[in-house]
């Protein structure tokens, strides 16, 4: 079934998409339905705000990304930024611009993904806007969250001798993207052929349905650890390490042998004839957390499941470097995964 958006109109569409939304958080005083939403946060909290704009053809490709997954991911990447400040996401607003190619049912799919993510992370949709677009789909999500005033973690707090930690594993989302891009080329024009992704499910999941590391933030809080600096890994470990070091006026040493990599990522890198460490250091979109802790927390973090110690913070004069398995030092470069860079 395909219902043209024009049959509902802008207000009708918003009404359809936001039907039945129940607000879960105390701080969400009033959501969709008036000129503005009303939020009410206790005075002992800091309020965190982050926003993200995704453009079709630049940030996502609908030939292999299902709309529901896209909605889920668009919401989750915003939650990830709030967790990366050691906070808790509470509300989002969702703005969409869509061309005539999209139907009401398409937008319901996209919203189903957004609403699923919100349910899973206990976040309220409190507003948004829709508009028409001449070319393709654009999604902008703004997320609002909270943190205790003394618990907010910035990028600029890393100190010499601090330990550098990373959650989960790296490079899988990037390999998932390579895989999808390869199948897209191979299968062009052959509508009936289904690619075989057996044994590569983890890579696809990491690319198509990433999760924000709420669990790690909760574990750190339970262990009474407040990182000295933190950010989420969206552009690649190299680039994020350099952000932390630049903003903290520090250097770092990270060890190749300690970079966490999944088996499927390694197999895929070999198949593509790519350097595995490069993929893990520069592949983007893993949405894992990179953080530093004082050396006094060594025992506590080394016992935490799902967290790897990958190196330490140094004096700024020493720069940022990767130590390879055979003991060579390579200066870190932020190759990153920033689509804007390719246009320069
Ligand atoms: Mg971030």
TrEMBL record:
Residues at which substrate binds = 59, 285, 337
Gene that specifies this protein = thiL
Q: Determine if Calcium is one of this entry's keywords.
A: no
What are the PurM-like N-terminal domain coordinates in residue numbering?
A: 33-146
Q: Which residues bind Mg(2+) 1?
A: 51-52, 129
Which residues of this UniProt protein bind Mg(2+) 4? 35, 50, 81
UniProt enzyme class: transferase
Entry-linked Pfam families: AIRS
Question: What is an annotated GO biological process for this record, any one?
Answer: thiamine diphosphate biosynthetic process
Record's miscellaneous remark: Reaction mechanism of ThiL seems to utilize a direct, inline transfer of the gamma-phosphate of ATP to TMP rather than a phosphorylated enzyme intermediate.
**Residues binding Mg(2+) 5, per UniProt:** 235
The Gene Ontology terms for molecular function here are: ATP binding; magnesium ion binding; thiamine-phosphate kinase activity
Which residues take part in binding ATP? 111, 128-129, 155, 234
Family that this chain belongs to? Belongs to the thiamine-monophosphate kinase family.
Query: Does the record carry Magnesium as a key word?
Result: yes
Question: Which reaction(s) does the protein catalyse, per the Swiss-Prot or TrEMBL entry?
Answer: thiamine phosphate + ATP = thiamine diphosphate + ADP
* Binding-site list for Mg(2+) 3: 35, 81, 232
Which residues take part in binding Mg(2+) 2?
Answer: 52, 81
What EC number(s) would the UniProt record show? 2.7.4.16
**What organism is recorded for this protein?**
Bacteroides faecalis
Spell out the protein name for this chain: Thiamine-monophosphate kinase
Q: In which pathway does it act?
A: Cofactor biosynthesis; thiamine diphosphate biosynthesis; thiamine diphosphate from thiamine phosphate: step 1/1
Q: Which UniProt keywords apply?
A: ATP-binding, Kinase, Magnesium, Metal-binding, Nucleotide-binding, Thiamine biosynthesis, Transferase
What is the protein's known function? Catalyzes the ATP-dependent phosphorylation of thiamine-monophosphate (TMP) to form thiamine-pyrophosphate (TPP), the active form of vitamin B1.
Q: Which InterPro entries match?
A: PurM-like_C_sf, PurM-like_N, PurM-like_N_sf, ThiL-like
């Amino acid at each position: 079934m395909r219902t043209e958006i024009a049959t509902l109109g802008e207000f009708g569409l918003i009404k359809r998409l936001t039907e039945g939304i129940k607000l879960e958080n105390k701080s969400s005083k009033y959501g969709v339905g008036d000129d503005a939403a009303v939020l009410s946060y206790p005075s002992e909290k800091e309020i965190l705000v982050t926003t993200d704009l995704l453009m079709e053809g630049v940030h996502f490709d609908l030939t292999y990304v299902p709309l529901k997954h896209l909605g889920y991911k668009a919401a989750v990447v915003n939650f990830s930024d709030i967790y990366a400040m050691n906070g808790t996401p509470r509300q989002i607003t969702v703005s969409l611009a869509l061309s005539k190619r999209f139907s009401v049912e398409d937008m319901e799919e996209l919203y189903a993904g957004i609403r699923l993510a919100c349910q899973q992370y206990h976040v309220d949709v409190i507003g948004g806007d829709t508009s028409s677009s001449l070319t393709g789909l654009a999604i902008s999500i703004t997320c609002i969250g909270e943190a205790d005033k003394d618990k907010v973690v910035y990028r600029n707090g890393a100190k010499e001798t601090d330990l550098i930690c990373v959650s989960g594993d790296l490079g899988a989302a990037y390999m998932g993207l390579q895989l999808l891009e390869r199948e897209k080329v191979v299968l062009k024009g052959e509508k009936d052929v289904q690619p075989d992704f057996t044994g590569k499910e983890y890579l696809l999941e990491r690319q198509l349905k990433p999760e924000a590391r709420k669990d790690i933030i909760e574990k750190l809080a339970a262990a009474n650890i407040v990182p000295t600096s933190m950010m989420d890994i969206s552009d690649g470990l190299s680039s994020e390490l350099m952000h932390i070091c630049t903003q903290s006026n520090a250097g770092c040493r990270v060890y190749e042998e300690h970079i966490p990599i999944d088996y499927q990522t390694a197999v895929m890198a070999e198949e593509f004839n790519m350097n595995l460490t490069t993929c893990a250091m520069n592949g983007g979109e893993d949405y894992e957390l990179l953080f530093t802790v004082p050396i006094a927390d060594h025992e506590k973090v080394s016992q935490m499941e799902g967290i790897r110690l990958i190196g330490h913070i140094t004096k700024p004069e020493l720069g940022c470097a990767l130590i390879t398995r055979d003991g060579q030092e390579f200066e870190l470069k932020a190759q990153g995964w920033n689509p804007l860079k390719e246009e320069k």
